[in-house]
Amino acid sequence: QVQLVESGGGLVQPGGSLRLSCAASGLIFSINTMGWYRQAPGKQRELVASITRDGSTNYADSVKGRFTISRDNAKKTVYLQMSSLKPEDTADYYCNADILSYTSPTRYSNHWGQGTQVTVSS
Questions:
Q1: How would you write 1-14 as a 3-class SS string?
Q2: Which residue in 93, 92, 45 sits closest to 69, CA to CA?
Q3: Whether the Cβ atoms of residue 80 and residue 9 lie closer than 8 Å to each other
Q4: CB 82 within 8 A of CB 6
């Protein structure tokens, strides 16, 4: 069974920084695109950033220049370095990945983590 487990959320003051991590585990053969989404109270879940297996990145306009996504393929882990945080960044952050598992080796399946809360407040 494949799992994505996030860590690193918490409370931070405006202008501060946080680093989120998401580790994939299970019978994983390959991981394609990995990404971070967020959902604020009363709002739809939105893409924050994504990164392909070869390192190509994509960012939401609202976080460009402040957030950096990276991944360690050997550790099956994706990171989100968040800087210059604003109150509007407050949300639950979810990891997402397209994974090819040994138990289903013919197609990639999409997986979500359980989420980690980020609160930006003074």
A1: CCEEEEECCEEECC
A2: 93
A3: no
A4: no
Say yes or no to pLDDT of 109 above 90. yes
Amino acid letter, 78:
V
CA 39 vs CA 11, 19, 20, 96, 116: distances in Å: 16, 17, 15, 13, 10
Distance CA 66, CA 68 (A): 7
Distance of CA 32 to CAs 4, 80, 96, Å?
14, 17, 10
Q: At residue 84, what are phi and psi to the nearest 5 degrees? A: 50, 50
Q: Cα–Cα distance between 21 and 95 in angstroms, integer?
A: 9
Distance CA 119, CA 88 (A): 9
Q: Are 57 and 40 in contact (CB under 8 A)?
A: no
Residue 29 clears pLDDT 90, i.e. is over it: yes
- pLDDT at 105 > cutoff 90: no
Query: Residue range 43-52: average pLDDT?
Result: 98
